[in-house]
Amino acid sequence: MTHSLQSGIFDNQSKQITKNSFISDGKISSGDIAAGKSWSVTFDETGFFRLYDEKYQKINITIFVFDSSKIVKFGQNKPLN
Questions:
Q1: What average pLDDT does the segment 46-69 reach?
Q2: Hey, where are the domains in the chain?
Q3: pTM of the entire structure?
């Protein structure tokens, strides 16, 4: 089965994930991914991203992208090395 991933936001009015639960933001789109094939994306900015399949919106993922130089140990003020 072919799938297509794109980025967007979750419609907070939705109580369940349905066909119209996500709204595309136009930032990321995989195009069609044929059965047995893969796709990858590189994130150049920090933040969180929601990816979902427009036809099968129960297929969705939240990705957190952060700057590893800004990570601090609990209770300390210095970056992890």
A1: 88
A2: 5-70
A3: 0.71
